[in-house]
Structures are given as structure tokens and as C-alpha cells.
Specification:
This protein is mostly helical. It has one domain. The chain is built from 16 helices and no strands. Helix 3 runs antiparallel to helix 7 and helix 11 packs across helix 15. The longest helix is centred in the last third of the chain and has 27 residues. It is globular. The chain starts with 17 loop residues before the first helix and ends in a 15-residue tail after the last helix.
């Protein structure tokens, strides 16, 4: 049974930038599941043919067998047509439990390939901190995060660390989607606004999220009508301000786990994650720039 903890009752106050810094440090470790060749091989071995089938099956396996509309809602920034090409067909190829097992198997091999077997021996401390941070996460309104809460924890420390970081990033992601929704920015418009403000470019995000040229150009026109971008898709001052507001709201909504840890333990976790994340970016499988918009930490 999951019991939500009120984060204000735990730890010391944290700086407003802490949640963004911890996300940047943890995201490359989580992203091994998307970019490591071993992950793709594990998906294929489980019967998931094609990268995007594997992506949607393994990422949303904790939800169980649900319609494409539900998956579209929780991933938010993917084209509904792209989701529908994978869901629900993937569940004729593999069960959600087997998809999750394939995800863990691929991450296990991917982390070992990129970081060496010594990662297993060094992951116990960070894993403990990351799991402690989860005590500050209230699942209310966060469907994808909540779906992960009853998953069994792996025995291996590096997989426990990966799973905790995955929960933390989905917690942040659910809050980010709510911030975009409140700002009147849908999934495609979120990419247009991010590209306009220096984030991942259209050439990277549009094909990897399934939006057509018509979709993209329509969102440019919509945002231009609101004064947020120029007709050519460049951000205005108002657009940059809105983007900053959404990111700030995301950071505040994601503060719970770091309030639970407090400054000192949050800093300890970040210090442990950054070297691993940089190795994964600099010499491993995770590219920067990437469709998630994660920087080199």
C-alpha cells in the first residue's frame, strides 16, 4: 500500500533550482532504456518488433492494457496517431509484465556496457537516497507516476537506482504536463515553444513525436495569434516569459522529493549521479541534444 507523505514535514528547505538539477543529473541514467543497443535487443527478444512499439510498451507497461487514448493522455506530447500505431497492438505481442521485464533486462545490460560492472557496487548509496526521495511524492494527479508504485523493486542496486530515478522523472513529467495544460499549451505546441526558446529543435522533436508538418505549422500560427511566437516561429518576449513560467511551475510541482531529502542529501545524490550521467553522455549511448530536451549535466 502506498501512503502519500506531505513533503513539507520532511527535511530542510531546498533551493528552487534543485528539482531541475536533479532531473538533469538523473535523466541520462533513465534514458539508457531508450538509447542503449542492449535495451533494443531486450525488447526484440521479448517479441516487440520496432523501436516505437518497444518504447510505448515498456514505458507504459505499468499502466497495464489500456486504450491508445489513455497512453496519449499520459505521454502528452506525442501525436495521437503515433501512439495508435503501437497501442493496443503491442499487447498482442507481449504482456505488460513481460514488457517491464524486458525493460529492466535491457537497462541492466545497457548500464553494465556503458559504465562497467563496477556500477553495481557503487549504486547502493544513491539508490537509497533516490528511494528516500520518493517518500516526498504525492501521487495525486500523476497517473503515470502512480502506475509505477506497486512494481516490485529489483534486488540489484543499479536497477533499484534506475527504477527510483524513473519514478522521479515520471513524477516530474506528470507535473510538467499539468503545467502545460494550465498554460493552454498542448503536446505539439509544447515542442514548438521549446524549439523557439532554445530547446530541442524541430528537426529532432517533430519526427520523434509523430507530428506532421501541418500539425507543427498550425501550432506556430496558434501561438503567433497569442503573441508567443512570430509567424516564423521565433519566440517573443511573451513566449519566453510563458516558457519560463511553465518551467518554474514544473520545478515547484516537482519539489516534493527534494523537500523530503533536504539540501544536504539532495546534494549528495546529485554529486553521485552527475559523474555517471556525464559518462553516459560523453562516451555512452545517450546523445545531447535529444528529444527529451535533457542537457549534459
Amino acid at each position: 500500500m502506498w501512503h502519500a507523505v506531505q513533503p513539507a514535514t520532511h527535511g530542510e528547505p531546498v533551493d528552487d533550482t534543485t528539482s531541475r538539477g536533479l532531473w538533469a543529473a538523473g535523466e541520462p541514467i533513465h534514458a539508457v532504456t531508450y538509447f542503449a543497443p542492449a535495451s533494443h535487443a531486450a525488447w526484440a527478444a521479448a517479441g516487440l518488433r520496432g523501436f516505437w512499439r518497444g518504447y510505448f510498451a515498456t514505458r507504459t507497461a505499468p499502466l497495464g492494457v489500456v486504450p491508445a487514448e489513455v497512453v496519449t493522455a499520459v505521454v502528452y506530447n506525442f501525436s495521437p496517431a503515433m501512439v495508435a500505431r503501437a497501442i493496443p497492438e503491442v499487447w498482442t505481442m507481449v504482456t505488460p509484465a513481460d514488457a517491464w521485464s524486458a525493460r529492466l533486462s535491457g537497462v541492466d545490460r545497457g548500464l553494465r556496457d556503458a559504465l562497467g560492472d563496477e556500477v553495481v557496487a557503487t549504486a547502493a548509496g544513491p539508490a537509497e537516497l533516490a528511494r528516500a526521495a520518493l517518500e516526498g511524492c504525492d501521487p495525486g494527479g500523476r497517473a503515470l507516476f502512480a502506475a509505477h508504485l506497486d512494481l516490485p523493486w529489483p534486488d540489484e542496486p543499479h536497477l533499484a537506482l534506475w527504477q527510483a530515478l524513473t519514478l522521479l522523472r515520471e513524477y516530474r513529467g506528470d507535473g510538467h504536463n499539468l503545467a502545460l495544460l494550465a498554460a493552454g499549451v498542448d503536446g505539439c505546441a509544447a515542442h514548438v515553444l521549446a524549439a523557439a526558446t532554445g530547446g530541442s529543435p524541430r528537426s529532432l522533436t517533430q519526427p520523434n513525436r509523430g507530428w506532421s508538418d501541418e500539425d507543427w505549422d498550425t501550432r506556430v500560427a496558434d501561438l503567433a495569434a497569442r503573441g508567443l511566437v512570430t509567424p516564423g516561429g521565433e519566440a517573443t518576449d511573451a513566449g519566453r516569459a510563458l516558457h519560463a513560467d511553465v518551467e518554474g511551475a514544473t520545478d515547484r510541482a516537482a519539489a516534493g522529493p527534494w523537500l523530503a531529502l533536504g539540501d544536504q542529501r539532495a546534494a549528495q545524490l546529485e554529486a553521485a549521479l552527475v559523474p555517471l550521467a556525464r559518462r553516459l553522455v560523453d562516451t555512452g549511448p545517450v546523445p545531447v541534444p535529444n528529444p527529451m530536451g535533457a542537457p549534459r549535466p
